[in-house]
Amino acid sequence: MKVFQGAYTALITPMRENGEVDYDGWRELIRFQLQEGIDGILPLGTTGETPTLEEDEEEKLLKIAVEEVNGRIPIIAGAGSNCTKYAVKYAKRARDLGADAALVVTPYYNKPNESGILRHFETVAVEGGIPVILYNIASRTGRNIPPALMRELSQIPGIIGVKEASGDLAQIGDIIRDTAERRKAEGGTFTVLSGDDALTLPILALGGDGVISVVSNLIPGPVAALVRAGLGGDFAEARRLHYELLPLFKAAFIETNPVPIKAAMTRSGLPGGPVRLPLGPLAPENEKHLYTVLAACCACGFLHHQHRKNPD
User: Fold this and answer.
1) Element (H, E) at 135
2) Gyration radius from the chain CA atoms
3) Of 18, 125, 140, 143, which one is least surrounded by beta carbons within 10 A?
4) Reduced to 3 DSSP states, what percent helix, strand and coil does the chain have, rounded to the nearest 5?
């Protein structure tokens, strides 16, 4: 089984101005990620606007991703749903199309109780036929997975980790201590990946394994460097990169993800394009702030010259 450690990009889905998926831009983005040394990619996540993608679009995007990567880095495919039957279906699709793992979010809107959460993830792990990474993000789902429940989930065969976006460092520390170490002691694996760019450094310091990043759509190299420094124990370097990148980490979430990051990528000359309704464009004042931060990133050398499109 592959070890999922490092910096993974939760890829946007580039769109054309008419709202259609830009498949050529998708290939370009994946090649850019590979060129810049990212450790893995996550197509079909929330950042990829899956709530508004058609199933045939999702399938084509994943097929292209597998083709472009060609086994060079791991692919974690988004496979979440608030319907267990559909989550199993999407996990099987990820397996059949060549992904290495499936990211499965806590069922949203339903707000299931703990026994329901346990059975949901167990069913997906058993029937999906692909390693499952849980996605804990109560701000979107309305339901947090506490450490005690995470410990139970970690014992289910096929569940190999969690993308932790609770924002609660005490909770994340408990999970790393009580879940990850326990699985490793028993000869298994359980990876804990940050779901928040700004919390990557503290989670690495607590013993976490990396990040599933939004900002690395734009600057995969620096984000990967931060993670590698932390995993290598060079926290002076990791801290330096963290503080240099922090303004962009914050600006990328000035409005609902992926609205800011797609605007930043389009501004920087990378494939981005508009978001699909019900998401809308950035407010003018937020757009101005984002572009100011991008200009500073250019000055710091984080953006490559070929992508410096109208940075001022």
Assistant:
1) strand 132-136
2) 18
3) 18
4) 50, 10, 35
Distance between CA atoms of residues 89 and 125, nearest Å: 11
Distance CA 255, CA 274 (A): 14
> 8, 163, 262, 291: which one is catalytic?
163
DSSP one-letter string for 139-166: HHHS----HHHHHHHHTSTTEEEEEE-S
User: What residue ranges define each of the domains in the chain, with the CATH number in brackets?
Assistant: 6-232 (3.20.20.70)
Task: Look at residues 51, 40, 67 and name the one whose alpha carbon lies nearest to residue 13.
Answer: 51
First to last CA, the chain: 46
Q: pTM for this one?
A: 0.94
Residuewise pLDDT in 10s, the chain (312 residues): 567 999 999 999 999 999 999 999 999 999 999 999 999 999 999 999 999 999 999 999 999 999 999 999 999 999 999 999 999 999 999 999 999 999 999 999 999 999 999 999 999 999 999 999 999 999 999 999 999 999 999 999 999 999 999 999 999 999 999 876 665 655 567 999 999 999 999 999 999 999 999 999 999 999 999 999 999 999 999 999 999 999 999 999 999 999 999 999 999 999 999 999 999 999 999 999 999 999 988 766 666 534 434 333
* Residue 203 burial by Cβ neighbours in a 10 Å radius (0-12, 13-18, 19+): buried
Residue 197 near residue 10, CB atoms below 8 Å: no
User: CB under 8 Å to 40, separation ≥6 — which residues?
Assistant: 4, 6, 7, 8, 9, 73, 74, 75, 76
Instruction: Note if 309 is an active site residue.
Output: no
Catalytic residue among 90, 135, 262, 291: 135
